[in-house]
Amino acid sequence: MTGGARLPAAARALLSGDRRALARLMTQVENHDPAVLPVLRALYPKTGRAHVIGLAGPLGVGKSSVVNALLAHLRKLGTTVAVVAVDPSSPFSGGSVLGDRIRLERDPGDAGVFIRSMASRGRAGGVSAATREVVRLLDAAGFSVILVETVGSGQVDIEIRDIASTSVVVLVPHLGDEVQTLKAGLFEIADVFCVNKADLAGADLAARDLSELVGLGAPRDGWRPAVVVASARDGTGISELWTAIAAHEKFLDADPKRRAAAERTRLATELVELVRERYTESAREELSEASRSHWLDDVAARRTDPRTAADGIFERQHAPKARRRRP
């Protein structure tokens, strides 16, 4: 696809700066509308230029406030910024309050800012299943920095590593978070630690403890996480936080193979997830067909164990396709 005239109309609108078109495409992505797929395919070559920064951490540490402060700082630098804030969903209705849209501040007339709240829809890992594609839409739309705020689901809030090139873990003093990160997995994903609420007693001690923990571990791919003390409320340390984030991005760029390897790892994870989704859909279709309900009947009657039945479903539906020659 070489000429812009061959792009779908919605893709041309997004590339021309139409923010309503961008918002509509995001809604289609979240609703799993198949009509958006040709647009996503057409826009994919236009992606890969934005810096995607993830912010994770337990509930109540002030991630939204830090995002808000970073947003203001970056706009002062003249950087275009998009924010994707993932909010928790009801396990019953799937709905979400989408409170981050309320907490985040922006000038309605500022075209250099775009904020989108998304419901996690029960997805573990702190992000929505549609987050990657929403980020790519923002990337194609030309935003230089995309901030992705996770739900804050604690020990499983680590999938941001599969989306962002730099992961910031936000903590506060007095909650024991600086120690719990070792157990929660957040320690392993952090490229930068931000101890928020610097005005509270113990912030410097928490930062020192984190620095000691970081020093005990081996650098990951040559990078040792930075520890920054900040206060989103008064802006203290936000410039230093961005400097630390930018330093990690510069570290990735210092060796082209390093950034490419990280991107390939993220893409491999995404491809596995997409293939898994296809297999899951196929299995559900297989079990929903009345003529093949014997799989459920046999398992329910204890004539067949679940693993053997699963193997049978897989072989019956996919083995013939696997034997076909590649086109």
Largest sheet: 7 strands, parallel
Number of helices: 13
C-alpha Rg (nearest Å): 22 Å
Helix content: 40-55%
Question: What is the residue-mean pLDDT, rounded to a whole number?
Answer: 82
What is the strand content? 5-15%
The counted number of beta strands is 7
Biggest β-sheet: strands ordered side by side in the sheet: 3-2-4-1-5-6-7
**Unreliable stretches covering 5 or more consecutive residues:** 90-102, 122-126, 322-327
Instruction: Please give the CATH architecture of the largest domain.
Output: 3-Layer(aba) Sandwich
- Overall form: globular
**Main CATH class of the largest domain:** Alpha Beta
Specify the CATH homologous superfamily of the largest domain: P-loop containing nucleotide triphosphate hydrolases
Helix/strand/pairing category: alpha/beta
Question: Order of SSEs, N→C?
Answer: HHHEHEHEHEEHHEHEHHHH
Gap from first CA to last CA: 21 Å
How many discrete structural domains? 3
Describe this structure in words.
- The chain is an alpha/beta fold and 327 residues long.
- It has three domains: 7-46; 47-254, 3-Layer(aba) Sandwich (Rossmann fold); 263-322, no CATH class.
- It contains 13 helices and seven strands.
- Strand 2 (81-87), helix 5 and strand 3 (113-119) form a beta-alpha-beta unit.
- The model is unreliable at 90-102, 122-126 and 322-327 (pLDDT under 50).
